[in-house]
Specification:
It is built from 22 helices and 7 strands. By secondary structure, the chain is an alpha/beta fold. It has a 7-stranded mixed beta sheet, sandwiched between helices. It is elongated and about 90 Å long. It starts with 15 loop residues before the first helix and ends with a helix.
């Protein structure tokens, strides 16, 4: 498996043109939207309650996601995605030309129409944006690619927001903004021509133009996927619920609690965006180049902790009789703590959102992927609207302060994610496996590409410790069904993980014949379904660090279901806390280096227990 940095994707034609295209689109969206809001507040001379128009802008941009995401999902499956992107980017040039006219002639209605059209453009682009990645990226590049996309998106949002403020400071701002939005749209269209062909997934799909019935059908399709995918969609939308509340309250928070000017708002937005970008980029390194949903509970936990800290530190902000600039905020510790909290929320938000996007992409059938992502966008928009209503209810009706709103959201985050993780315990299981592999052990993988990407195989490994199965499960991309001695299977805490992973408990013939026979039936069923099964044919944990003789059960498995055998070996576990070394200690060899190595496949007819044992011994070498 390739271990190249995710940044190497930026050198590849199958990713770079798409990355530039989507980043320029996000940048342009936010330049136009923020410039329009600032023009309403400061330039257009609108009388009356300007906040009505500001909220109208938010509504007009989000409304197309309700109306057109379902259509976008269908288009993304019926037509080649590269051609569809070019059509959408060409439309962006025309839309921005209308917006430019609105700025030049101070026509508010034209600007609002353009904003609605840009929302439509983004709604149509969204399903294509995420469904094209699995077509152009390998499985071990998917997390890194998604991390780069999320980084590019949030940095583009930040750059667009800041750039709009700079442009509005010019005397002839209308000419500057108009030229910029049209130029960026043209650059995005030019970049789209470099995107390689991405064939239509379902060219024969009949389009349903009824946006209401199709939206409902698309939502049902998304939420009827496997529990892991459907709850990932809910978790993804929940992230945007939380993010929308934080981002919406930042200007008021900066003004009323930090006594800051507009530079403080920019500083907070910058810190938050940098946090999301850092978290998104770190996902690839922490996940080992594979879709690691164990990071999702980690991200959720961090978002909650830093949300609570933000509430706590907000109570220690120093009141000021003068307006603070960003330099004043950085000069005082309460302000620094708040910024660190916001950075933490952003980083752990990246840990949370990137694996969810990657899971939705990797576990959805290609012919349904665009529509499932469209369902995700519809639900995202719904959650963002609900977040606005909840904020109004808690702030205006219940009379909470903004820090208290942050406290409520952090507590709600616990409740929502406990629900998601209880429905799909795979998240918690993978988190515990990931935590084990990044705390007590440093696990190195060698030649795991010997394990087939699809199809049945029997994995055979030496048995050194109580956590062998967890370390193997954390290293291999595919789900594995482990055969395990039933007394280890029943260990507290670990039993939850084993049950969730579909582990097969086995007993000796003389201990429990029913368990013994049922285990072989389940093994045969899993292999017949094309899954991976892992056995520890020694039948027990080693008591001296050496590899004992292999039992005959392996031969029975292969007689009933002939499949390739993949020999594997664990090095460096003997003497660790979970081994049976009499000289072990709790802190002995903490964070020790463990190696998992795989050998070449052996055909079923050649996989005699004594010969396979010799293969495993050679793979392990002298390092116990």
């Amino acid at each position: 498996m390739s271990q190249q940095s995710q940044f190497s994707l930026l050198k590849k034609r199958r990713f770079l043109p798409f990355f530039i295209t989507q980043s320029l689109g996000a940048f342009n969206d936010n330049v136009f939207k923020q410039a329009l809001i600032l023009a309403i507040l400061y330039k257009l001379g609108i009388q009356g309650d300007q906040s009505v128009y500001v909220n109208l802008c938010a509504l007009l941009f989000i409304l197309p996601f309700f109306l057109f995401s379902a259509l976008a999902g269908q288009l993304g499956e019926k037509y080649p995605k590269d051609a569809l992107i070019r059509v959408i980017k060409l439309a962006e040039i025309l839309i921005m030309a209308v917006g430019a006219m609105g700025f030049l002639f101070n026509h508010l209605w034209m600007l609002l129409l353009t904003l609605f059209a840009m929302g439509t453009h983004s709604a149509l682009f969204g399903p294509v944006k995420y469904s094209i990645l699995p077509q152009h990226l390998r499985e071990n590049e998917l997390v890194g690619g998604n991390g780069l996309v999320e980084m590019g998106t949030f940095l583009a949002i930040l750059a667009g927001t800041i750039s709009a403020g700079v442009m509005l400071s010019f005397t002839h701002y209308a000419w500057v903004v108009s030229g910029a939005i049209v130029l960026v749209a043209c650059l995005g269209f030019a970049a789209s021509w470099g995107i390689p062909r991405a064939a239509a997934a379902t060219p024969g799909l009949v389009l349903n133009w009824n946006i209401f019935s199709q939206s409902w059908a698309t939502l049902r399709l998304g939420l009827s996927q496997t529990p892991a995918v459907s709850r990932s969609i809910v978790g993804n939308s929940w992230f945007w619920f939380v993010g929308a509340i934080y981002l919406t309250q930042i200007p008021t928070y900066a003004k009323d609690l930090m006594f800051g000017d507009e530079t403080v708002v920019t500083l907070i937005l910058t810190v938050f965006s940098i946090g999301i970008a850092l978290g998104s980029l770190l996902c690839e390194r922490l996940s080992g180049h594979k879709v690691e949903i164990g990071l999702v509970p980690f991200g959720s936990f961090g978002m909650t902790v830093f949300g609570l800290l933000l509430w706590w530190h907000s109570g220690h902000l120093v009141q000021s009789e003068t307006i603070n600039s960003w330099r004043d905020i950085l000069a005082q510790w309460p302000g620094r703590w708040v910024l660190l909290d916001i950075l933490g929320i952003g980083i752990f938000g990246g840990f949370y959102i990137v694996p969810l996007y990657a899971l939705i992409q990797s576990r959805t059938a290609e012919k349904e992927r665009s529509r499932v992502i469209a369902a995700n966008n519809i639900l995202n928009a719904l959650f963002m609207v609900v977040s606005a209503l909840v904020s109004i209810l808690l702030l205006s009706v219940a009379g909470l302060s903004i820090p208290e709103l942050f406290l409520v959201v952090s507590l709600m985050n616990i409740a929502v994610n406990v629900y998601i993780f209880s429905i799909v315990p795979e998240f918690t299981m993978r988190f515990m496996i990931w935590l084990l592999g990044h705390s007590m052990y440093r696990v190195e993988h060698r030649d795991l590409d010997q394990i087939p990407d699809e199809g049945a195989a029997l994995l055979v490994c030496n048995h050194v410790s109580f956590v062998d199965a967890l370390l193997i499960a954390g290293a291999v991309r595919r789900p594995i069904r482990f055969v395990m001695y039933y007394k280890i299977y029943r260990l507290p805490v670990l039993n939850f993980i084993f049950r969730t992973a579909g582990t097969i408990p086995i007993a000796g013939r003389n201990e429990d014949m029913d368990i013994y026979e049922q285990s072989f039936k389940r093994i045969a069923r899993y292999l017949a379904d094309g899954e991976l099964v892992c056995i520890f044919p020694e039948g027990k944990l080693t008591t001296d660090g050496e590899i004992s003789g292999f039992k005959a059960g392996m031969s029975r498995i292969l007689e009933e279901t002939p499949v390739p055998v993949i020999p594997m070996a664990l090095q460096g576990l003997w003497g660790s806390f979970f081994s049976r070394d009499p000289d072990k200690g709790l802190l002995r060899r903490l964070w020790s280096r463990v190696v998992l190595v795989a050998g070449a496949p052996i055909t079923a007819d050649l996989a005699k227990p004594v010969d396979v044992r010799e293969h495993v011994k050679r793979l392990r070498g002298d390092q116990r």
